[in-house]
Specification:
The chain is α/β, with parallel strands linked by helices and about 575 residues long. The chain has three domains: about 120 residues, 3-Layer(aba) Sandwich (Rossmann fold), CATH 3.40.50; about 150 residues, Response regulator (Rossmann fold), CATH 3.40.50; about 130 residues, Histidine kinase-like ATPase, C-terminal domain (Heat Shock Protein 90, 2-Layer Sandwich). The chain is built from 18 helices and 18 strands. The strands form four sheets. Strands 2-1-3-4-5-11 form a six-stranded parallel β-sheet. Strands 14-15-16-18-17 form a five-stranded mixed β-sheet, with helices on one face. The longest helix has about 70 residues.
């Protein structure tokens, strides 16, 4: 089993003090990810030495020795300038020969002369004038900058450095320093800042009243009351109430620290100390703070990143929108397909309607031709034969010959009449000669004579110029209705009405016959009814068949003639 490696983290102010807490969190994660052997990480803090009021380090050094006993740490990592300086001064008294990684301190706080071979430094270089330059670029009307910083020796060092580095801006803005104030006094000052003010929050470990603040507690308290936008220095402040700008990446520092510690654990010792400093990253701003303080994003430096922007409708519902779009596309394709099918169906129906009309027209033309042939040729020839037979001299014919001659002559006459009737049924020439009303009367008289029916006809005077297809269609419907009465109705009285109604021609044929069940007729439609409905459809009219068992039947047909001049 691999030997457990021990890492001691020596903190200047404790594990939860900002901004070092974010650096240490990344360090721990990256160290665990990169280690090839088990790790044991220990945390100690100089708080015990700093709060004891004694300058004697021996009690704390003895505490460290007892804590580790005969198994000293394989590498020591110091966090902050205070811890780094303390350990450099006492390393030979507690863990001699062990590699050191100094981290979370600024370049100006690194005692380079005290470093040894195998040591490593991961620090930062803070370009302090850039902090003020960022504020004036984003808020060019700024006249006052309140600088928030604490009261520890480390923070007092930075007050001196900042005052010196900010001096070139003294003719443009005034600086108000909060290092001699308690947190409550700072809150009151920030709540009463005049217009055209800004706040630069560096770090606040301990205020002038000696109260320490861990994590982001101090910053959160100041954000609640500030009447001016707050700008920060470190990456961890973003998202907690600061506007933003160029920052020191604590994640990058933590990653570099872990790499240096892993090299030390693997005994990859260099002849000279390894010193690395991070600088400001590309500017990053909080979209919420820009909106809160009315800062125009156009003022931000080129290449700036804006975080915490609410997702757009597309970003937030991309999958839903894409799914809905796909569904709409499919529905659109389906709709187009249905419309196309409807167009094809209507086209087919129109073609079928046209074909049906042509078939009926061709049928009527053929019937008209046959009727004319029968009437003009066959009937005349039969009549001629009958006349010729009548002229044959009887002479010495026997009675049987005379009977045969009379029988042939009578047969020819009857055959001529039958052919004439057939010709009339095929196409009544009276329609062409005398019009629809006379043709209907003639048909009714023929049926009445043939079937011993009483057929009453009532007809309005029709306007001249009715289309042939209308008159012929009405006649055929009346003819079919009379044929059905003769075949099925067992009626004794039939009434036919032809009237002008609602811009059209209305035909009603009723009888007092046996009638039928309409539902049964719909399930078993007859060819005659189908023929009537097809003719009405071609004429753009309406057909209604009313019937009750024992109550007779009425066929009502209506076709439009509104466009025909009366």
């Amino acid at each position: 089993m691999a030997e457990t490696k021990r890492v001691l983290i020596l903190h200047s102010f404790g594990r939860e003090f900002a901004p070092d807490d974010a650096i240490v969190a990344t360090f721990r994660t990256k160290l665990a990810e990169g280690a090839s052997e088990p790790l044991a990480v220990y945390d100690e803090s100089l708080d015990a030495v700093q709060t004891s009021g004694s300058d004697d380090p021996q009690p704390f050094l003895e505490l460290l020795r007892q804590h580790f006993g005969n198994l000293p740490p394989d590498v020591v990592v110091t966090i902050g300038a205070a811890a780094g300086t303390f350990y450099l001064q006492n390393r030979d008294k507690v863990f001699p020969g062990k590699p050191l990684v100094m981290a979370a301190l600024e370049e100006r706080r690194v005692p380079k002369s005290a470093l040894r071979a195998g040591d490593a430094v991961v620090g930062s270089h803070i370009d302090t004038p850039v902090l003020v330059g960022n504020i004036l670029r984003v808020l060019p009307d700024t006249r006052r900058i309140a600088v928030v910083i604490g009261h520890t020796p480390m923070e007092r060092f930075w007050v001196g450095e900042l005052r010196k580095n900010f001096a070139p801006y003294a003719n443009r803005v005034s600086f108000e320093w909060f290092n001699d104030l308690s947190l409550e006094q700072m809150r009151r000052r920030l709540a009463a800042l005049p217009p055209h003010s800004a706040v630069l929050y560096t770090f606040l470990v301990t205020d002038a009243a000696g109260v320490p603040y861990e994590g982001g507690a101090a910053l959160a308290s100041l954000v609640q009351v500030s009447t001016a936008p707050i700008f920060g220095v470190f990456e961890g402040d973003l998202g907690h109430g600061v506007v933003g700008g160029p920052y020191q990446s604590q994640q990058r520092q933590g990653t570099l620290m872990a790499a240096a510690a892993l090299r030390a654990l693997r005994a990859q010792i260099s002849a000279d100390p390894l010193i690395q400093f991070t600088t400001e990253e590309s500017p990053v701003y909080d979209w919420r703070e820009l909106k809160r303080w009315g800062i125009d994003p156009a003022r931000l430096p080129a290449g700036s990143e804006i975080r915490f922007r609410p997702p757009s409708l597309w970003d937030e519902h991309r999958v839903l929108i894409m799914t809905a779009g796909l569904i709409f596309m499919l529905l659109g394709a389906l709709l187009i397909g249905l419309v196309w099918q409807r167009i094809r169906r209507r086209r087919a129906e129109n073609e079928a309607l046209t074909l049906s009309g042509r078939l009926i027209t061709a049928h009527e033309d053929e019937r008209r031709w046959l009727a004319r042939e029968l009437h003009d040729d066959i009937t005349q020839r039969l009549a001629g034969l009958a006349i010729a037979a009548a002229k044959i001299p009887e002479g010495d014919s026997t009675p049987s010959d005379l009977d045969a001659r009379h029988s042939i002559r009578g047969g020819l006459i009857r055959l001529s009449e039958d052919v004439h009737n057939l010709s009339y049924r095929l196409h009544p020439s009276v329609i062409d000669d005398l019009g629809l009303v006379e043709a209907l009367k003639a048909e009714c008289e023929r049926v009445a004579r043939a079937e011993s029916l009483r057929v009453d006809v009532e007809a309005d005077k029709l306007p001249p110029g009715l289309p042939n297809e209308v008159t012929l269609g009405i006649y055929r419907i009346a003819q079919e209705a009379l044929r059905n009465i003769v075949r099925h109705a067992k009626a004794s009285i039939v009434k036919l009405l032809l009237t002008l109604s609602d811009g059209g021609l209305r035909l009603a044929v009723s009888d007092n016959g046996s009638g039928f069940e309409p539902e049964v007729q719909q399930r078993r439609p007859s060819l005659g009814h189908a023929s009537m409905r097809e003719r009405i459809r071609l004429l753009g009219g309406k057909l209604d068949i009313q019937s009750t068992p024992g109550g007779g039947t009425t066929v009502i047909a209506w076709v439009p003639i509104s466009k025909v001049a009366s």
